[in-house]
Amino acid sequence: MKVVILGCGRVGATLATQLEQAGHTVTVIDNNTEAFQRLSSEFQGERITGNGVDESVLRRAGIENADAFAAVTNGDNRNIMASQIAKEIFHVQKVVCRIYDPIRESTYKGLGIETICPTVIGTNLIFQAISETRP
Amino acid sequence: MKVVILGCGRVGATLATQLEQAGHTVTVIDNNTEAFQRLSSEFQGERITGNGVDESVLRRAGIENADAFAAVTNGDNRNIMASQIAKEIFHVQKVVCRIYDPIRESTYKGLGIETICPTVIGTNLIFQAISETRP
Q1: pTM for this one?
Q2: Is the ipTM of this complex over 0.90?
């Protein structure tokens, strides 16, 4: 399967390595070339420097033949816009978008984009851990 | 149960409201008074302005009688240090610490502090979502 990942932070870089190790062909996009240093030294996939909300950059990353796209930059808006482009213009089958802001997350969840909100997940996990305590 | 939360960002503020609604007594600490604006208007708990790695601030927040402590500021080091103080000096029964850096998380997990790493959780969730795709 071909996967395009936007954002080479901790999550993007780890995801790229894990997906490649699972046998997928992975391309990573970041607007900062230094970010690619986070990739494992064994990573064989392509690195594209550019702005992920720019269609020509996404095309260079092979989005037209991608089966999956993950938007994991640190910017919620950038992730949302790039996910919409991947889904609506390039018809990528699986689009996953990280959104930190729970309000924006619930809005875009309704628009057919699979969203992951670390804020909500983290809050729920901590709530559960504390609720289990017996004083 | 008495709970002290360090950090009134999105996670801290939501957690405070959820725990209070679940019947717990909650105190929130943040070094920036404006952060308390994130709290729900119904939140009745105490707000303490100060540095959460300062023992006197933790005492003002009632840490000596707390059953649980959650460190959810945006700084990994601050969360780690405050959690260690809560556990080792004040013997709080349940201490939960958010750590963004997976390397630091695995180090401190071994030291008896319950850690939550949104980076690892997010990566795993996106990996699973993409792995389920059938091209």
Answers
A1: 0.89
A2: yes
